[in-house]
């Protein structure tokens, strides 16, 4: 069991890895949309090979497609929107906030789904414990986004930032706008999970559902690239002078989806969500503090770490009590 716990925590680190590498790829292709498209193409190819190797590819012989609700096929669209926007947000608010802020949106929206029984889910009452756990998560988020800003360099060591970089940073006056949007994107992620989960039940295969989701997301992003005349920038993501690892975002995404498919029967949904979250937060701190994958270094204060611990406690209470 200890091995499974460690594997689940490690699996959670693949989310910030995907986001960080996609953000670096964005710098090469000059578009979060194109970077996400490349990532989805790679994820789709890998999942297709996995499905082929396991013998699940296209195994729909005993499935009645008409019994599957139409909205369960939309998971790929929501997943594509989530990955594209998170890739954009990473360079704006950093790795930690990009990971933790959507969690609040996920929890609140999940409460509404449980309360009203949306998406064919069983209707459940909202307990005081659930409300308290959401408050815990909110308090943790406040501590994280309002952590004190301190200089990480001595005056003589400060790096001059060019005009282009400055223009990409959000002004202090409007910094709450991307943070609020990050919370809202958590709703999009929940819609992705609900749709994919229902599709997996309908197809009797989580792997086939994930593959179909990625195919739909890839087509959606490809069409958007065509409409915005950015599809030609895809070739920029494969230039030799770029670091080889910038194309690994799709690999990390595919491994995460396949890992969840494998581990859920062994550790359960609640344990999976909490343990993967622990891995996400831990690696996000490392990425922000040390600028891993050429990310901008950001101050990680004691207050931010305390906020993450409070958030984690709230998520544990939400899932287990």
UniProtKB/TrEMBL annotation:
Pfam families: DMT_YdcZ (PF04657). PANTHER family: INNER MEMBRANE PROTEIN YDCZ. The keyword Transmembrane helix applies. This is DMT family transporter. The keyword Nucleus does not apply. The chain crosses the membrane at residues 33-58, 70-90, 96-113, 125-145, 176-195, 207-232, 244-264, 269-287, 299-320. Keywords: Membrane, Transmembrane, Transmembrane helix. It comes from Segatella bryantii (Prevotella bryantii).
């Amino acid at each position: 069991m200890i091995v499974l716990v460690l594997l689940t925590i490690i699996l959670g680190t693949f989310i910030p890895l995907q986001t960080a590498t996609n953000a670096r790829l964005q710098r090469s292709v000059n578009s979060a949309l194109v970077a996400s498209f490349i990532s989805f193409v790679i994820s789709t190819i890998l999942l297709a090979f996995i499905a082929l190797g396991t013998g699940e590819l296209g195994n729909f012989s005993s499935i009645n497609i008409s019994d599957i609700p139409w909205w369960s096929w939309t998971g790929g669209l929501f997943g594509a929107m989530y990955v594209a926007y998170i890739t954009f947000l990473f360079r704006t608010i950093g790795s930690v906030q990009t990971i933790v802020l959507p969690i609040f949106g996920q929890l609140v929206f999940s409460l509404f789904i449980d309360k009203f029984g949306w998406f064919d889910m069983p209707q459940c009452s909202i307990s005081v414990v659930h409300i308290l756990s959401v408050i815990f998560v909110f308090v943790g988020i406040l501590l994280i986004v309002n952590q004190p800003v301190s200089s990480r360099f001595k005056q003589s060591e400060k790096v001059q930032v060019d005009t282009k970089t400055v223009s990409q940073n959000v002004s202090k006056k409007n910094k709450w706008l991307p943070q609020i949007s990050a919370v809202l994107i958590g709703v999009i992620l929940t819609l992705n999970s609900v749709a994919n989960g229902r599709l997996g039940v309908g197809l009797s295969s989580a792997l086939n559902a994930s593959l179909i989701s990625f195919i739909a997301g890839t087509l959606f992003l490809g069409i958007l690239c065509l409409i915005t005349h950015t599809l030609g920038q895809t070739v920029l993501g494969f230039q030799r002078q770029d670091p080889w690892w910038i194309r690994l975002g799709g690999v990390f995404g595919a491994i995460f989806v396949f890992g969840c498919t494998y581990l859920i029967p062994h550790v359960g949904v609640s344990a999976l969500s909490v343990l993967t979250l622990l891995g996400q937060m831990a690696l996000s701190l490392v990425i922000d503090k040390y600028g891993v994958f050429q990310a901008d270094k950001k101050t990680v204060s004691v207050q931010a770490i305390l906020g993450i611990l409070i958030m984690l406690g709230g998520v544990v209470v939400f899932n287990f009590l």
